[in-house]
Amino acid sequence: MLADYFRISLRNLRKRKVRSFLTILGILIGIVSVVGLISIGQGMQHAINEEFKTVGQDRIIIKPGGEGFTGSTPVTAEFSTEKLYGHDLDVVKNSKGVYKAIGVIIDTGDVEFDNKIKYNNLFGVPIDSYSTGFIKTIDFFIIEDGREFEPGDKYKAIVGYRTAKELFDKEIRTGNKIIIKGQEFKVIGIQKKTGSPVHDSMVRIPLEVARELLGKEDKEFTTIFAKVQKGLNPLDVAESIKKELRNDHGVKEGEEDFTVTSSVQLMEGFNNILNIVQIVLIGIAGISLFVGGIGIMNTMYTSVLQRRKEIGIMKSIGAKNSDIMMIFLIESGILGIIGGVIGVILGISLSKGVELIAFSMGVELLKAYISAPLIIGALVFSFLIGAVSGLMPARQAAKLQPVDALRGF
Fold first, then answer.
1. Distance of CA 318 to the CA centre of its chain
2. Residue 104, CB half-sphere, CA atoms under 13 Å: how many?
3. How far apart, in whole angstroms, are the C-alpha atoms of residue 172 and residue 165?
4. Percent of the chain beyond pLDDT 70?
């Protein structure tokens, strides 16, 4: 019996190809939007989480400026009116649960190579053996070609992968000379490609030289990085650092002139923002699905009016109300599922296209993540949209009396 329902429904849809296509189009657009947006959003979340796993969730970042300061990310901390100094680094190093900690200078500046000048991220890092040992534990700073800094290096530089390969017309190689804010540096290392725009576009130079070129005060840092002792909770260690810095700065809780953030908190923050953005975008895409559902309802109402005699004949030869209702429900469900299948295919293609365009532009965080639950969910949802939209027209068809239906219009 169910096979007969499907056979009748498909025959009726084939008779009205143009109308069926236009009806399917409404659902199709909505599913394309939902699948494309969700896959890109999930891909970004997956990529960001993988990057945090690469860096390690045992990292803590200390920046100048309180929690309310808008530019309190590691890269923009130099814009804060507050500052961090050597004694802050000592406090962090001596805080309970801290394994190692280093202070760095992060800023932007002009970099010249092959008679071309570009503005780039500059990282001033300490080059003593203690600090170098810390830096070597971070995947973002791994050297692909050349060597790491050694004590005594001065006007030497290590460049990120993108800076070396893409920033200038000519590729930067180890042994080349670059000019940073008017000072010549010899490139001693090229970092491996990480996919992070910040780290792939950096130029690392010795800390003291960075202070001199960037006009920073003696023992001033823009950011302090700390590593948690193995087996300890980074959130607990972060709270310990906050407490010690509050005591050192003589400020109360909630009045801090610094910000302490763990990698776990950063990851959660990014995920929360992405979730909110996805919800908003999916809500907008949901309007298309709503409109598509109204289109199916309109098509099915029209179909009921046009097929009154057919309904009357079926009822006169023994078709029950449930049979008539099932035929129309399946018909509207098929409209939804066809729109869903095509929408899923186009949505995946769209998200993959965005990924390829982003990759060609050097942005590797924008990736499409296609999962089985996403595909199955989109198909089930599209079928339900179709079936629910056809429910009222199906009930109307089922309630028609055979005599009234056979009279026609």
1. 57
2. 27
3. 7
4. 86
Tokens of 344: 């899923």
Write out the two tokens for 219.
Answer: 């023992």
Torsion on CA atoms 8, 10, 15, 18, rounded to nearest 10? 150
Please tell me the predicted confidence (pLDDT) of residue 29: 83
Q: CA-CA distance, 77 to 221, in Å (whole number)? A: 10
Cα gap 31→289, rounded to integer Å: 7
Contact criterion met (CB below 8 Å) for 190 and 200: no
The token pair that represents 278 in the structure block: 């996805």
| Domain ranges across the chain | 2-52+268-406, 59-229
In the structure encoding, which two tokens stand for residue 352, read together? 């993959």
Amino acid at 404: D
- What pLDDT is stored for residue 363 in this prediction? 67
**pTM for this predicted structure:** 0.64
Distance CA 319, CA 5 (A): 12
Helix, strand, or coil (residue 61) = strand
Q: What is the pLDDT of residues 7-20, one digit of tens each?
A: 766 776 777 777 77
